[in-house]
Design brief:
By secondary structure, the chain is of the alpha+beta class. It has helices spanning 2-60, 116-120, and strands spanning 66-69, 74-77, 82-89, 97-108, 123-125, 128-134, 144-149, 157-167, 170-171, 177-183. 35% of the residues lie in helices and 35% in strands. Strands 2, 4, 6, 8, 9 and 10 form a 6-stranded mixed β-sheet that branches. Strands 1-3-7-5 form a 4-stranded antiparallel β-sheet, with helices on one face. The longest helix is centred in the first third of the chain and has 59 residues, at 2-60. It is elongated and about 90 Å long. 18% of the residues are buried.
Amino acid sequence: MISKKAQLEMSVGTIVTIVLLTLALILGVILTNTIFQGAKENINSIDQSVKSEINKLFAEDTSRMIVIYPPTMQVSIAKGTTGGFGFSIRNVDQDDGTFSYDVSASEIGSGCRLTKAEADKLIVLGKSEDGIRIISGSSLDPPRLVRFNIPESTPLCNIRYSINIEKGGQTYLSGGASVDVEIK
C-alpha cells in the first residue's frame, strides 16, 4: 500500500513539473516574439529616418550625384555587432539611365591584419546591384543600405570602402565616393 501511494505522489509531481515547464516555454516564445516585433519596428523607423535625411541632403544641393548617410561618411561598428550606411544616387543628366553600383574595400588602415578580400566579406547586404532605372532629375528610391556583420574575431581596423557607380556601363561619378568604417 505504501508503495502505491509513493508512486501516485511521484506521478502528480511529474505532471505539475511538465505543466510548469510547458508554461515557461510558451511564455518564453511569446516574450521572444514580442522582442523581435519591437526590433522590426525599430529597423523600419531607422530606415525611414535614413530616407528622410538623404532626401534632405539632396534638397540642400541639387547638383549632388550621390548622398551618403551618415553625412560624415564615417561609421563605427563594434566587434560582434552589425551596422552600416545608406546612400542614394541622383540622375543629374538630361536622359534616363540604368545604373549599377559596387561597394568594395579600397584601403586598409596601417597595422590592420585584414586583406581587402577579407574586408569585402564583412559586407553582408548591399554590396552591389545592377539594372537600377533612374529617370532624369530623380534619385534612387528607396535608398540602398550597405550592412556589415563584424565577427568577434575581426581585428580592430579602419577600412575605406569605395562606392563605384556606373550609368550605362560608363563611370558616372569620377573618383566615386567612399565611406570609412572603423571596427572597434
